[in-house]
């Protein structure tokens, strides 16, 4: 629930506001508040528990595409890495049975620090490197993504302000199939 600094309720509201900016209805947002899944960048979550919760969400929403972090978690955040591990666990364990039948999984590529903060200049590099999917946002989409990020007031520390200015992830995203 994003309760690392005891701000879980605030962060839930910020998530809803951010999703609204992106056109995602509140009914499609699921916040998990589980004592064994603490919001902590140093804590690895239990893979099987998280895999079960992710699978329930996929079944409940009849999801056919999952986009998640890769093994690097984009920022090295242990919770992000745990999410990748849980999705991979599910896919490797149950690849041809519902809800995975017909469900594709794309993982967002973690890039080195230099590439992460060269904004639109990374488009050239990303076009030259192998990947399964490449998403290049329009100027309007980039501005929408920034508005959505700004909804997370409680998390907009100085380094995230730099992220809003220079991150390639607000302009270009390379993904691979899992």
Automatic annotation (TrEMBL):
Residues folding into a coiled coil are none
The protein's Enzyme Commission number: 3.5.1.89
GO biological process, any: GPI anchor biosynthetic process
One cellular-component annotation, GO: endoplasmic reticulum
Query: Which InterPro entries does this UniProt record tie to the protein?
Result: GlcNAc_PI_deacetylase-related, LmbE-like_dom_sf
The record's top EC class is hydrolase
- Tell me the GO molecular function terms: N-acetylglucosaminylphosphatidylinositol deacetylase activity
> What protein family does this chain belong to?
Belongs to the PIGL family.
Q: Under which name does UniProt file this protein?
A: N-acetylglucosaminylphosphatidylinositol deacetylase
Lineage at the top is:
Eukaryota, Metazoa, Chordata, Craniata, Vertebrata
Gene that encodes the chain: Pigl
């Amino acid at each position: 629930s994003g309760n690392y600094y005891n701000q879980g309720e605030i962060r839930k509201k910020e998530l809803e506001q951010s999703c609204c900016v992106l056109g995602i209805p509140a009914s499609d947002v699921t916040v998990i508040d589980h004592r064994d899944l603490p919001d902590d960048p140093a804590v690895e979550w239990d893979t099987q528990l998280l895999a079960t919760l992710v699978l329930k969400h996929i079944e409940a929403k009849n999801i056919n595409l999952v986009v998640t972090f890769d093994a690097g978690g984009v920022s090295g955040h242990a919770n992000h890495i745990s999410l990748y591990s849980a999705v991979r666990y599910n896919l490797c364990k149950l690849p041809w049975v519902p809800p995975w039948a017909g469900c594709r999984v794309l993982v967002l590529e973690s890039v080195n620090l230099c590439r992460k903060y060269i904004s639109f200049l990374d488009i050239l590099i990303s076009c030259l490197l192998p990947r399964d999917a490449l998403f290049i946002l329009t100027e309007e989409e980039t501005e929408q993504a920034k508005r959505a990020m700004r909804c997370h007031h409680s998390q907009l520390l100085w380094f995230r302000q730099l992220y809003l200015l220079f991150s390639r992830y607000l302009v270009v995203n390379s993904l691979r199939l899992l």
